Amino acid sequence: MEIFTDGPTIHLSGDFDVRSTMEVRNAIYEHLLGHDEDVVIDLTDVTTIDKTALKVLAVATRQASRTGRRLTLRGCGPSVRRMLHLTHLIRLVEVERLPAAVG
């Protein structure tokens, strides 16, 4: 798992699973403690995700909300969206909507 921050956005790349949840969790909480802005988690380059990883995102969403901020997921591919629906976590996390295609 590779993690880098660009302003309010945390970019994740690679396998987001039980082996990387602690690393991602720490990055999110460091960001929440160090900034007073909403947080965007960019999952565009995440190749796989599991239930444990999604729970980390759900708990971080709740923590951000407690401090008056929002945590938004960006770049959720079909497999991530499917896991969000299967685990019913889609009700707890905010997923950025893609703009409608013009053409």
Automatic annotation (TrEMBL):
InterPro entries, alphabetized: MlaB-like_STAS, MlaB_ABC_Transporter, STAS_dom, STAS_dom_sf
SUPFAM superfamilies for the chain: SpoIIaa-like (SSF52091)
Residue span(s) of domain STAS: 1-103
PANTHER family: BLR2341 PROTEIN (PTHR35849)
Name of the protein: STAS domain-containing protein
Natural source organism: Nocardioides endophyticus
Phylogenetic classification of the source organism: Bacteria, Bacillati, Actinomycetota, Actinomycetes, Propionibacteriales
